[in-house]
Amino acid sequence: MQQNRSTLIAAAIIMAVFALLAFYLPDIMMAAAEFSPVAAGAVVVLFLLGFFVLFWLRGRHQNRKR
To answer: Into how many domains does the chain fold?
Structure first.
């Protein structure tokens, strides 16, 4: 029961942080686009990769704990 609760809390925090970043992503992209359009694309790629990599690493950590 305790592990399910901590997993749920961790996932909720991660999702909230990424939701906040997604909310400000257009502004971040526009700021990066002032330097280069490639930089704006890189921001989006890093955002998407970061989301999946974070959950992948968390899953590996959870499997190692078992």
So the answer is: 1
